[in-house]
Write a structure and sequence with these properties.
Elements: H1 24-37, E1 41-50, E2 57-67, H2 74-81, H3 86-93, H4 96-116, H5 123-131
Antiparallel strand pairs: 1-2
Helix pairs in contact: 1-2, 1-4, 3-4, 4-5
Amino acid sequence: MAAPIGNKYAVGNTGGRPPMFTSVDDLMEKVTAYFDYIQGEFHEEPYDVQDEETGDIETKFTKVWDRYPERPTITGLSLFLGFADKQSMYDYKKKEEFSYPIKRALSVIENNYEMMLDSKTPTGAIFALKNMDWKDKIEQEITKVKTKVSFKDEPGS
């Protein structure tokens, strides 16, 4: 017996979960929102400072963080985009129309790790870059060349 009309399992249903993003613009907007989000949020609070010479009180402002900035990460991006894990984002990257925005976002994250190599403790950045297929060794391939040596004046020839 066939499924009733209107049933999501009825004939014509292509199956699978509906796509997370229906257009490249939607994805680009969400990626941009991620990079804005990780900048953190702050507000300014006033405080008074008295001038030692004149005694005048001057109001200055200090930055108070409501949410601290974060470093961009692959898992952070994938979770912000709504994926369950980074592999789901990598699978989405295989779709031709969404490949460029995801590759570009991953390059921005990779660039951040690359910039961290100049810090006092780049160990974490090195680890992350190795997971992005960077290598810290030189690979050399040596091939053996076979040569045939023959002598024309061999005895018995």
